[in-house]
Design goal:
13 strands; 8-stranded mixed sheet; alpha+beta; single chain; 3-stranded antiparallel sheet
């Protein structure tokens, strides 16, 4: 039997944005356009690829930060996809934020836009939470850093870009899990595992403390044959409360 062919992983980043809400923190979700090749129609956190320009900006401004390129990509993608600025100093006002977002959508380099408006990186606002690199034969593979951050005071309501995503909304982790279980929403395997973990936290500080405790070991799910079928599994020591799901139930992309 021929060995499966795996593509080289594509560096990526995603940002889980917290805000206070009721009995549990609310998180910012976007719904992917159904036509998207990756996770079409699924609920995800804002994020995307780490571009070469992100790495260049990190080398220029934060060369000692090993997560610099991914943090910058997460900040940029949050602006592009939801119109919210995180990890910048000073935080831009509404007009400046709109100008930065428009510049990104027109192809202007993020570094050039920041320089033009006198904005600097404040990357400590993004706390590393996890790292996922699922490997699927003959498919694109993303090596994704997950970060968590809090919504700044006075931040605008999220507005989707209308291309990759069709909706943005706030909800608790448990509410989205309940919607997925009821068939009202679609979430892929890494999102489900992260939501199960996020649903345990009473606050951002609780989540950040747990993230510091466990670190960000790379999680690459594997298929395991058990007496009642095949399961998609992850390590049991990385902070996730659920570490296996029947393969025939798991949505992988």
């Amino acid at each position: 039997m021929a060995e499966p062919q795996y593509a080289d992983p594509i560096p990526a980043a995603t940002l889980v944005l917290f805000r206070s809400g009721g009995n549990a923190p609310e998180l910012l979700f976007v719904e992917r356009a159904a036509a998207m090749a990756f996770a079409g129609g699924a609920l995800v956190f804002p994020g995307g690829r780490v571009d070469a320009a992100d790495a260049a900006l990190a080398l220029r401004d934060v060369p000692a930060d090993p997560h610099g390129p991914a943090r910058i990509a997460a900040i940029r993608e949050m602006i592009e996809e939801a119109g919210i600025a995180i990890g910048l100093a000073p935080l831009p006002d509404a007009a400046t934020l709109q100008a930065v977002r428009a510049a990104l959508h027109s192809g202007t380099a993020f570094a050039d836009s920041l320089d033009m408006h006198g904005l600097a990186l404040a990357l400590d606002a993004l706390v590393p939470f996890g790292r996922w690199c699922p490997r699927h034969a003959n498919m694109r593979i993303f090596d994704t850093m997950f970060f968590i951050a809090t919504l700044p005071a006075g931040a605008p309501d999220p507005v989707v870009d209308g291309t990759e995503n069709v909706r943005a909304f706030w909800a608790s982790a448990q509410a989205v899990l309940d919607d997925a279980d009821a068939g009202r929403a679609t979430i892929i395997f890494p999102t489900r595992r992260n939501l199960e973990r996020l649903a345990r936290y009473a606050s951002f500080d609780h989540a950040a403390a747990d993230a510091h405790r466990h670190g960000t070991p790379m999680i690459t799910p594997w298929v395991e044959a058990r007496s009642d079928g095949e399961y998609l599994c992850i390590p049991d020591d990385a902070g996730y409360p659920v570490t296996a799901e029947r393969l025939d139930n798991a949505k992988r992309a």
